[in-house]
Design goal:
Number of strands: 0
Number of helices: 15
CATH architecture: Orthogonal Bundle
Oligomer: single chain
Membrane topology: Multi-pass membrane protein
Order of helices and strands: HHHHHHHHHHHHHHH
Structural class: mainly alpha
Distance between the termini: 39 Å
Number of domains: 1
Largest sheet: none
Keywords: Cell membrane, Membrane, Plasmid, Transmembrane, Transmembrane helix, Transport
Strand content: under 5%
Low-confidence stretches: 1-5
CATH topology: MetI-like fold
Family: Belongs to the binding-protein-dependent transport system permease family.
Subcellular location: Cell membrane
Pfam families: BPD_transp_1 (PF00528), OppC_N (PF12911)
């Protein structure tokens, strides 16, 4: 009793909220799903490794002053024939440590994927709310544009947008703007699914009593969409965003592998795979294998986490 009486009301409220979160149905489903736990742990480890790459990586692979061509093509966990240095995952043709390049490459892949999904989500939610709430010609134009875009593969749309944006960018700024152009290209190719889901949910929500009550008290259309309808359509959006993150990472890797993505000065996992592919048949398999396994593990873990989140937020599957 003395311990409880000594706590401030704010601490008591904070502890009660934490207890509610721990005892919630969502947290219980997470604890009962080994796939969700393993996926969350793997994603967390890989994200932290990418964020703290300068502290974890034994070498700076993009510092020309630290490279030694004599270390080129060192096999994993095998002393180099000339320098006797040992590299965990070997080195590439320029003597760069593959483990370090993977850590730095994940930073680019995760940043591009997360930023592209955020851009697509904001654009899709905005257009979906407008289409569902306004109706009429606004809805017709937005949804017809979405239908036309769905007829083309997303990767081709991203390549087209990337090519146009890169073409209008001055030559001296192309490498500096390549990452941002890549984010915009992937985001513009992925907004449709957000818009379609939000538009369908908005059509249902706008006819409910709380929206009609908001209109009666004089709320504007913008306030109704943002403060009343938007919070009630976010659950499916979060699920789509999680799954889209894995697809965006793969899309970035695909574009970089094709040579139209991240520049050589800022290589992502896709760029590393493209570089390793050139040495696969000459016996230097590790240059391709380890970046490819990293990309596979990251995309699979995010996808499995998104599948669990979809099931956890769907009351029909409980």
């Amino acid at each position: 009793m003395a311990e409880l009486s000594s706590q401030t009301p704010e601490k008591v409220v904070e502890r009660s909220r934490l207890r509610v979160a721990i005892d919630s149905d969502f947290a219980w489903q997470f604890r009962k799903s080994p796939v969700a736990i393993v996926s969350a742990v793997v994603v967390t480890i890989m994200v932290l490794a990418a964020l703290f790459a300068p502290l974890i990586a034994p070498y700076d692979p993009f510092d020309p002053g630290s490279l030694n061509l004599m270390n080129g093509f060192s096999r994993p966990m095998t002393p180099n024939a000339f320098t006797q240095e040992v590299f965990w995952l070997g080195t590439d043709d320029q003597g760069r440590d593959v483990f370090s390049t993977i850590l730095y490459g994940m930073r680019i892949s995760l940043f591009v994927g997360a930023a592209a999904v955020l851009f697509a989500m904001v654009l899709g939610i905005t257009l979906g709310l407008l289409a569902g709430y306004a109706g009429g010609w606004t809805e017709t134009i937005i949804m017809r544009v979405a239908d036309v875009q769905l007829t083309f593969p997303a990767i081709l749309v991203a390549m087209l947008i990337f090519g146009i944006a890169k073409g209008i960018t001055p030559v001296e700024y192309r490498d500096q703007m390549a990452i941002w152009v890549l984010i915009i290209a992937i985001g513009l190719s992925d907004w449709v699914q957000f818009a379609r889901v939000v538009r369908g949910a908005t059509l249902v929500e706008k006819n409910k009593e709380y929206v009609q009550a908001a209109r009666l008290i004089g709320r504007g259309s913008g306030a109704i969409m943002l403060r009343h309808i938007l919070p009630n359509v976010l659950s499916p959006v979060l699920v789509i965003a999680t799954i889209s993150l894995a697809l965006a990472i793969i899309a970035e890797a695909t574009l970089s592998f094709l040579g139209v993505g991240a520049p050589p000065t800022q290589p992502s996992l896709g760029t590393l795979i493209r570089i390793g592919q050139g040495f696969l048949f000459s016996g230097e398999w590790w240059i391709l294998l380890f970046p490819a396994l990293t990309l596979l593990t990251l995309a699979l873990s995010v996808n499995l986490l998104g599948d669990w989140l979809r099931d956890a937020l769907n009351p029909r599957l409980r």
